[in-house]
Amino acid sequence: MAEMKMHAVQYERYGGGPADFKHVDVPIPSPNNDEVLMKLEATSLNPFDWKVQKGMLWPIFPRKFPCIPGKSILPLVFLGTAMDVAGEVVGLGSDVKNFKTGDKVVALLNPASGGGLAEFAVAKESLTVARPPEVSAAEGAGLPVAALTAHQALTQSAGIKLDGSGEQRNILITAASGGVGHYAVQLAKLGNTHVTATCGARNIEFIKSLGADEVLDYKTEDGAALKSPSGRKYDAVIHCASSIPWSTFEPNLSANGKVIDITPSPSTVLSFAIKKLTFSKKQLVPLVLIPKSEHLSYVVNLVKERKLKTVIDSKHPLSKAEDAWAKSIDGHATGKIIVEP
Fold first, then answer.
1. 182 in a domain, yes or no?
2. Which of 137, 149, 197, 240 could form a disulfide with 181 if both were Cys (CB 3.0 to 4.6 A apart)?
3. Is the overall model pTM greater than 0.70, yes or no?
4. Is residue 41 domain-shared with residue 112, that is, in the same domain?
């Protein structure tokens, strides 16, 4: 019997960007005992994906070529490498109990298997959740890495209760119009928070519409200095941007304020260690995403209830995945970039 093939996009070396993409026919993956096979309906890109291609995590990612973007080698802890997908279950491993063929799902891909720029993919049952009919495939695909990063930063790192209880906290969210940032604004406003956000001038009204109390144009003097228009000091910063030094954050923090860096660099980790050793009350905290299915179900249900929305910057067919990749590299997307097979 002939082996079943699927269309996929892959690259074979570091660098090159979207110009190095190859459209190929490869075997449809088979699910292991604890996996589901999905026919993909939507995949969202994360900046980490093209950073891997640029070799910014060499020699860890990718471990071998050719690489279908979205492929990773970390089984438990995700740094944003597993691509976000939504699709329909078309195959089941022998140990899968909670899904059946025909189910619509949202998932983080199995890090040992193929990536999301393909027609089919397999995912661990433990990182797959049901997608209700009220949530479109594109809306669901935007959620896993970006919304879970925002959720973990707010609830675990910043200690915000999303039921609105507790004392009011002053929160700053940088790069608020991006994938993680636009979810962070919405989730933060479910809690008892005053949210200040930064973005480009063209997105100020958009960020206000998501619920931000104050919005700074990052290119202005006050925006670059991160100064709250109402003079507030921040109890926590969800730092989704880059190239902002600690010296800019520090005077804007409350006595026990912390900066939660969602894309920590080696210098972030070093700063974190130094501040721990010196018992500094103001902290720089690196965030490493540890995804949990219950949290993914939670944000999917928030979308169902219209308490959270996935803002879609653009949609691209798989045959034009290069365009989506280039747009992600450009760094000015508002919300999520979606690829559809």
1. yes
2. 240
3. yes
4. yes
